[in-house]
Structure formats: C-alpha cells, structure tokens
Amino acid sequence: MIIFSHIPFIIAILLYFTSSVWSIGHIIKPVFFNKTVGKWSMMMGFLIHSGFLIFLGLESGNIPITNVYESFVLLIWCILFVYINLDYLYRLPLLDTFLVPIVTALSIWALTFDGGNLLITVSLQNFWLIAHIIPIFIGYAAFTISFSLSIMYLTQQRQLKLKLFGPLFTKLPSLAEIDRLMWKTISFGFPLLTLGLVFGTFWVKTQNILGEQWYLDYKVVLGLATWLIYAALLHMRLVSSFHGTKIACLTIAGFCLVLFTFIGTFFMGSKHAFQKMSTQIHEEF
C-alpha cells in the first residue's frame, strides 16, 4: 500500500517516466519531442527525489537504509547523482535515453517493497556499516551506468552490422567512444566496490554479525563473485587489451549479479540481507 508520505517519490517516478518517453521520442520525432523537456523532467525528478531522501533520513535519524524500500530509493539516487556528474564532465550523448528507463523501472520495482516489512537486522549506528554501504552503493551506481553503456554499444554495433544508418545511428557516439566510457565507469566503480567490501569485512569480523562462518553467507559470496567479474574485466582490458562485445557482455552479466546481490539474497535466506519483520520478531521471541 502506498502511504501519503511516499507521494514525492511517486511524482519523481512520473517525471523519470516523462524523461524516458521524451528521450526516446526525440530520436524518432525530434521536432515534437524536445530533448530539453526530457532533461528538465529528469532534473526535476532528481530534485524531488533528493528532497524525499532527506525526509527519509530525518525520519529514521540515519542514512535511509532501514528497509529495502529506503535502500532502493538511495541506490537509485546514487545512480542519477553519478550520471549527472559524469555527463557534466564527459558530455555523454544519448546515455539518458538508455539509463533513465532503467532508473524508472528500478523505481517502480522499489514501490513493491513500500510496505517497509523487510528490515535491516543490525544497528545503523556503526562506522564500519556506513563505510561499507556508501562506497558500494556509489560503485553499484557506476556499474549501472556501465551496463547502460554496454546496451548502447551492442545497439550501435548491431546497426553497423546490419547497415541500419537511421536517426539513432547518427545520434549515438562511435563504438570507440562508448568503449572508452565503459572503461571509465568500471574503473571508477571497481575501487569503490573494493573499498566497501574491505570495510564490510572489518565490520562483520569486529561485530561478529554473521558468526564464525561469515564467509559462507550468500551476500558475502555473491559480493565476492561480483568483485571477481569486474576485476576480470579490468584485467582483460589492461593486460589482454580486450574491448568491445566481450567487455559489453561481461558488463551486462556483472550488472545482473549486482542486482541479484542487492536484493536476491533476501529470497535465499541470507542473514546478511534484510529480513521480514514478522520473522525477526518471531526469532527474538
């Protein structure tokens, strides 16, 4: 059930959806679908989203990750924050056309967890936990952008292969440029993921959150698997000079694992992940 206090986030989602429609429509009918409308819709949505995030933080008295819904809201905000800054630095043409629909879909998915009954099971008043989460979320945001760039790369490559030199082809960057941007976003996200995992290791060992066999926790195992995929990507790029299709496909696989690590571990019964409120109360009883 959607409660009144979450209406700002719903408004932000509607603005993201508008931005998605206008960004895609601009490729087909640029005269009718003004690109500026899409950009401003996204920015307005981001500002409302930021205000809502501040509200959640003030309400909980901490960073807004007390449940899965809040964590989704924070992660989506990180994705847009990283994108806006990268777009300012590198002028990423048409990336919003690929990224904002993903943001919209993730935002709608977040609403399915709006009940707030999936709660984090540890205290948030802990330096190691915060130091663990923030770098990982920003790293995940960078990997979401690299995923969007991978879809863009494969789209442009297919157009070249089939000689479909339409309006989308002329507006997309070259394959070399997209490949370079994929490399930059992965290079940005990987050290943050590494830092977050290192801090997370200190956290679980010093606080004994997951017990002696903490390394067998599903979220820990999948987090390591995610790290290995992106480490392999960087290794292939630096040592073997791999690029293009192979990197794009591995980046897509890495992003799928990121999503599964973020939310899928709940369904696997991980102690590290969020737990249902009813389950938690029953265990305490």
Describe it:
The protein has 285 residues and is mainly alpha-helical. It has one domain. 75% of the residues lie in helices and 1% in strands. The chain is built from 10 helices and 2 strands. The protein has helices at 7-28, 35-60, 68-90, 95-111, 127-162, 167-171, 175-207, 218-238, 245-267, 277-284, and strands at residues 118-119, 275-276. The chain has a two-stranded antiparallel ribbon. It is globular.
What are the main properties of this structure?
disordered C terminus, 285 residues, two-stranded antiparallel sheet, single chain, 10 helices, mainly alpha, globular
Question: Between the first and last Cα atoms, what is the distance in angstroms?
Answer: 27 Å
Number of H- or I-type helical stretches: 10
How many structural domains does the protein architecture include?
1
Helical amount among residues, as a percent range? over 70%
Provide the β-strand percentage band.
Answer: under 5%
Shape: globular
> What's the Cα radius of gyration?
20 Å
Low-confidence stretches: 278-285
In sequence order, what are the helices and strands, one letter per element?
HHHHEHHHHHEH
Please give the largest β-sheet: 2 strands, antiparallel
Spatially, the strands of the biggest sheet line up as: 1-2
Task: Write down the oligomeric state.
Answer: single chain
Q: Which structural class do you get from the secondary structure elements?
A: mainly alpha
